[in-house]
Amino acid sequence: MTAEQPSTDKQFHRTKQWELALGQLYKDFQDCSAQAVHQFKAKDIHQARVNSRKLLTLLSILDPGHVSGLYPVFKKAQKRLGKVRDADVLIDSFQSRRKQAKIDGDPKTAKLLKSVMKYKKHQRKKYRQKLQDELPKLTGKKLETKWNHFIGEQLGAFVANKDANVVMRELEVAYEQKKKICKALFREQEAATEEAFDSLHQLRIAAKELRYTASAASFALHSKFHAHEEIYKEIQDQLGLINDKRVWLETLHAIGPKELDVGTKTWNAFMDTLRAEVLEALQQNDVIHIAAKP
């Protein structure tokens, strides 16, 4: 009995660490979600999304088979929050661009940007309505029941069978493999190919997984991993800038100049500007070296 006591105490301590970390994230997620559907403030939307992302990160460590049934619920919530958040980011960015276009004495571009914002605000209204309809259901009594069962009945066994340090190392290996593939594609192909961009997008996701694992599971990780949150946040930010500009290009392509009621010349000029910004962001990133094209 005495020989087993230290091991039992250690396991109990580990489980309590996980319980406390998960409990705080769950509370923050619920609080921010309630605020998010109340006034749709960008800060509340963002924080609810971040907390859902962290919960998904910890659940992917403990319960990769989704036995608890919690992962799909938080994933749906994150998706709905993400739709609104992405629209918020684009609208804010294009609002700043519109102000600058006015300062630069470019009323045609300012008009184009206003039309894009109007279009996206209309979309965001639909996204907000879906969020308001669905998020309270996702975060309601059914989730509370699943959560209490997970914490009270399943968590100890999950913690006993999983090591966050092993998961972190696996994520590092996956990131390096994706980086190698990405480098090869950008060496062999034109920087603007869809395959190369898709590879860069996958690398960004791998960096995000490392960042959020280092953050959400810091209490369970060796000290050698403690700097990973900042390291991979910087990487994610650089690759995210490229991805954002690419998404903006795709968004405008999907809308088209007719829908926005703008002239071809103004449209082409702005699209050329966005393409140039994508290329500049690619060449300035220090994650994947992109040689300037002759």
The stretches of 5 or more residues where confidence is low (pLDDT under 50) are none
C-alpha geometry = globular
Give the overall average pLDDT.
Answer: 93
Rounded to an integer, what's the Rg over CA atoms?
A: 22 Å
Topology, number of strands: 0
Number of helices: 10
Strand content: under 5%
Task: Kindly name the structural category.
Answer: mainly alpha
Topology order in helix (H) and strand (E) letters:
HHHHHHHHHH
Pfam family, one: CHAD
Domain CHAD: 11-294
Organism: Paenibacillus albidus
Protein name: CHAD domain-containing protein
Describe this structure in words.
The chain is mostly helical and 294 residues long. Helices cover 83% and strands 0% of the residues. The protein contains 10 helices and no strands. It has helices at residues 5-39, 42-62, 71-103, 107-138, 141-161, 164-188, 194-216, 228-255, 257-260, 264-284. The radius of gyration is 22 Å and the shape is globular. The termini are far apart. The relative contact order is 0.10. The model has no long low-confidence stretch (mean pLDDT 93).
